[in-house]
Amino acid sequence: MTRMRGQNLTHGIAHELGVAIVTGVYSADNPIPIEAELCRQYEASRPVLREAVKMLTAKGLLAARPRRGTWVQAEEKWNLLDPDVLGWLLERKYSPALLIEFTEIRLAIEPGAAALAARAAGPEEKAAIRAGIERMRAADRGDDDPLDSDIAFHVAVLRASRNRFYAQLTGFTATALRFSIQATNRYKGVQLASITEHQKVADAILAGRAVAAGDVMRKLIQEALDLITRREARQSARRPSARTGR
Description:
about 5% strand; 2 domains
């Protein structure tokens, strides 16, 4: 670990331990080292280490009790909506199941946000949606990053809903999108998202057509989900049968 100090050290320890927990280095069967050992490992004081442990406890990865010490929580206790936890999950070996779950969450969240945006977006939010589309067009010309511009558009839609709960999901959504967009574009054999389909979402929101905005966003994400599930079904069919040993 690179030598760090203060809050950088606290966050650095939390990050390294978080990745180690999520990737299975530490688990119920392979407990996290005791406090004194971790302090030596990270050259950290006990208060700094305890602050890092508190951060991971708040995210559901660890639990601590007096006289019981600190232990790794079962995965169902983890806060999967936390952008840090989600980012650490992506350190695992590629998982089609995780990609499908991400896309299912997008399907549940983003059409509703698009419909609300069509009713609630003000001038600033509409300008951000237009800017997102323009960035995607710039990416098509090679003047912007395709992934970042796509994410900027979807985040702008969430914020345009003016719903605080959707807005709280922007960090989670941006991280999930970074993983899912890369994978779906790779499946399609392209590196650029469909500007035409995203423009339809933007047009519906800007025109105040809530039902159309939700429907077009749902169609866009459903197509991505269908692409992933079809590809995974084909990949599963090609895998040798464990029973036959082929």
